[in-house]
UniProtKB/TrEMBL annotation:
Signal peptide boundaries: 1-16
Organism lineage string: Eukaryota, Fungi, Dikarya, Basidiomycota, Agaricomycotina
Record's protein name: Glycoside hydrolase family 16 protein
Superkingdom per UniProt: Eukaryota
Signal as UniProt keyword: yes
Length: 363
């Protein structure tokens, strides 16, 4: 699925890193959870020992709620229940109802991210069709790692190009360059943030920080700013954002030959927060043993629930910005894809899916 022609604008504008974007969507405060779907099933995606609860269970068990004292969204693992052998522990996976097209930027301001043995959290995005629509991992880690890792996962043919046109900070750690989900056991093309402030206890002690993900035709970029280094342009709840003012990204996957053609490998993305336990990554014995001892399931998931006291996201806001003049928000319809509406960046206009100004909009 892709946007073909919308008012003829998409052909005239070229999304690029370092452009101006206006806010098109905000998840914050008491209504934070309104725009998300809860998975409502056990983790049948990554083989985690986790049940992603429904919206009503998340509310009644206080696994997803807005803390009235801070107005922040809390997304967490059950840290009060004893789990019986052969059962899974309750946690949360939420997916944004809206999808965001090339030409958008998402900015997530967080105070705390989940960590601890067996814990595998991520803030990321993917297209409904995977891997052909692509996946962008802004924030991810497992167990007791001390740094955030960022990655893309795609069809074959998309790579992280490391020539001088890549904007990635020289201190960033390039772990792998092939983004093909079928290669290297789907590890993706991974960049690790060198900053210890990007994960775990050090992240929380420093007051967290802000992750910025730019999804542009020229390339995909992720910036992380620990709280004391958040630029004024992000800290003041700005309605307009110029990514050229943010400095070099922590990770950058440029388009073009030898890199990743974003138009080919990426479709509009749903944003996702999830926390699973053990599973394909955190629970892989060679990964688990790098930072934790014992057995992932036996010693943690069904062990002392206080293992999960730090297994939560504390999110002040997630804001999505769209390139000025471009339609980047694809809204979920009442029935599948048939009722999708489009919001025009900068104008705040909501229109129906079928006919705009006499022209057919195809999604
Ligand atoms: C996971 O479970 C849900 C609900 O039963 C189902 O709709 C979905 O197809 C399953 N996904 C996979 C990958 O098995
Ligand atoms: C990436 O490389 C760093 C430095 O060698 C290492 O500490 C980290 O575990 C690697 N991450 C992955 C996912 O391989
Ligand atoms: C920014 O927005 C958040 C969420 O809407 C709010 O809690 C916070 O007070 C705002 N900050 C400023 C400086 O306006
Ligand atoms: C569970 O975790 C929360 C933080 O999310 C913490 O405030 C609480 O004290 C922990 N323990 C129990 C028993 O709720």
């Amino acid at each position: 699925m892709r946007i073909a022609t919308i008012l003829g604008l998409t052909t005239a504008l070229c999304a690029s890193a370092g452009t101006t974007y206006n806010v098109v969507q905000e998840y914050a405060g008491p209504t934070f959870f309104d725009g998300w779907d809860f998975y409502g099933n056990f983790d049948n995606l990554t083989n985690g020992d986790a049940i992603f609860v429904s919206s009503s269970e998340a509310t009644s068990q206080r696994l997803a709620y807005v803390d009235p004292s801070t107005n922040h969204a809390i997304i967490k693992v059950d840290n009060t229940s004893r789990v019986a052998f052969n059962e899974k522990r309750n946690t949360v996976r939420i997916t944004s109802q809206d999808r965001f097209a090339i030409g958008s930027v998402w900015v997530a301001d967080m105070l705390h991210v989940p960590y601890g043995c067996s814990v595998w959290p991520a803030f990321w995005s993917q297209a409904p069709a995977w891997p052909e629509g692509g996946e962008i991992d802004t924030f991810e880690g497992v167990n007791q790692v001390t740094r955030n890792q960022m990655a893309l996962h795609t069809n074959p043919g998309c790579s992280l190009r490391q020539d001088p046109t890549s904007l990635t900070q020289t201190s960033s750690i390039i772990n792998s360059t092939n983004c093909d989900s079928a290669a290297n056991e789907n590890s993706g093309c991974v960049v690790t943030d060198p900053s210890l402030q990007s994960y775990g206890e050090v992240f929380a002690k420093g007051g967290g920080g802000v992750f910025v993900t730019e999804f542009a035709e020229e390339g995909i970029s992720v910036w992380f700013f620990p709280r004391d280094l958040v630029p004024q342009s992000l800290s003041s709840n700005t309605t307009s954002l110029d990514t050229s003012k943010l400095g070099k990204p922590t990770a950058n996957w440029p388009s073009g030959p030898g890199g990743c053609d974003i138009n080919t490998f990426f479709q509009p993305q749903n944003l996702i927060f999830d926390i699973t336990l053990c599973g394909d990554f955190a629970g892989a014995p060679n990964v688990f043993s790098q930072t934790c001892s014992g057995k992932c399931y036996n010693d943690y998931v069904i062990g002392d629930p206080s293992t999960y006291d730090n297994a939560y996201f504390d999110v002040a806001s997630v804001r999505v910005y769209g390139e000025v003049g471009k339609q980047v928000v694809l809204q979920k319809g009442q029935s599948g894809n048939s009722g999708i509406g489009i919001r025009v960046s900068g104008l705040g206009v909501l229109v129906s899916s079928l006919v705009i100004g006499g022209m057919m909009v195809m999604i």
